[in-house]
Amino acid sequence: MSLNVIDLIKGQLGPALVSQAASQFGESESGISKAIGGLLPAVVGGLANSADKPGVVEAITQASSSGILGNLLGGSSSNPIISNLLSSIFGDKISGLVNSIASFSGVSNTSAGSLLNLVTGATVGTVGKYAADNNLGASGISSLLNDQKGIISSLLPAGLSLASFGLGAENWFGQAKETVSSVTSTAKDNIAEGVATARENVSEGAREIREQFNDNNNNNQGGGSIWKWLLPLLLLLAAGYFLWKQCEKKQTTTTTTSTSDSATTSSTADTATTGTATPVPATAKTDENIDLNGVMLKGYKGGMEDQMITFLKSGAYKNAADDSALKDKWYDFDHVNFKMGSSTELEAGSQGQLDNLVAILKAFPDAKIKIGGYTDKTGNEASNVKLSKARAEFIKAALGKAGVGAQVIAADGYGSQFAKVDAKASDAERAADRKMSVRFAK
Predict the structure, then answer these.
(1) How far apart are CA 188 and CA 231, in angstroms?
(2) 440 in Cβ contact with 311 (< 8 Å)
(3) Helix (H, G, I), strand (E, B) or coil at 411
(4) Can you tell me the distance from the alpha carbon of 242 to that of 346, in angstroms, rounded to the nearest whole number?
(5) Cβ–Cβ < 8 Å for 339, 70
(6) HSE on the CB side for 184, CA within 13 Å?
(7) pLDDT digit string (tens) for 186-199?
(8) What is the pTM of this model?
């Protein structure tokens, strides 16, 4: 099965980035999320369609060492690699793409344009990193992009199509249109041949019956038997019915086979036009004011901060007899995310939730916590445990620098020990297992 690079790229466009982009652009998080959901397959499709252009492969190679992934919001708009690449793959269609995304998602054209740069930066940065990590040369990168042509056509959200961007599907997905026409033509030829053969069989059968009928007439002139004309008539009807069924069977068989092949071949073009294969991305949650003893923290209603504050205010922590009464309740970070493969670099937007946790601990100085790191089921387990442990230690150290280190009594990494999603699932599905969490401890 071909690698779906969109699953890799989504790791760079998580909730933390959506939240920060919404704040920076003055848009709703749902609008930003929706715009990214439409732009990502369009950008990957553009790269796939231009996979054999030297400039595209060169841009991806440069991106792996340019630091694009480390500054998507701040550096994407002015990065010449991105601007030149967009011109190369979209040409004069850029404004149409931006307008369509703005209309679809409800964000302004300016925001849609900035998000196009951001998504393109995330795409070339991620593909470039993957190529570097896997020692892919120019031909390997081109092959990887070409493989996406059979994937991205089904990933446009409902309500968007390549036609709405001013991009014809037949120009984006290689020989799809030509193949459909070829298969359709072959099916028509097969049907026509079958019908012609059946007609010849019917005509031949009818001729034989007419000769038999004439012979009977000649041999029985003067006889009064009804069979001299009824028997040939019955034979004629029976033969006609049999030949008609044979003709119908041949047409049905040929049509079914050809239609099946045509549907398989044309599904890429059809799906690219209608864009109905993938649901609209889920609406992102929005930060609200969470009351911490009169101080308002920004967080999700029902999210980590809200749950922890509610628990502490209820007296449940104070009344817990020992650690065993607390060990089964973990609170997942909503915004704290590490950059891909890193244990020392957080994604943009993560610091705010760490600051919130510091504020909670300072408001409840008797409370103590433990940090836990988790990975999905892919990769080497020893490496997963090491990475998750290092990330937990990083957060513990960050809280220590903020003055609440005495309240953080442990930081452990569990690797994939508690992962629930199958390793063969998509990257987006496995993301639920890649998390950082915190629990109260005694």
Answers:
(1) 38
(2) yes
(3) strand
(4) 75
(5) yes
(6) 9
(7) 444 444 455 455 45
(8) 0.42
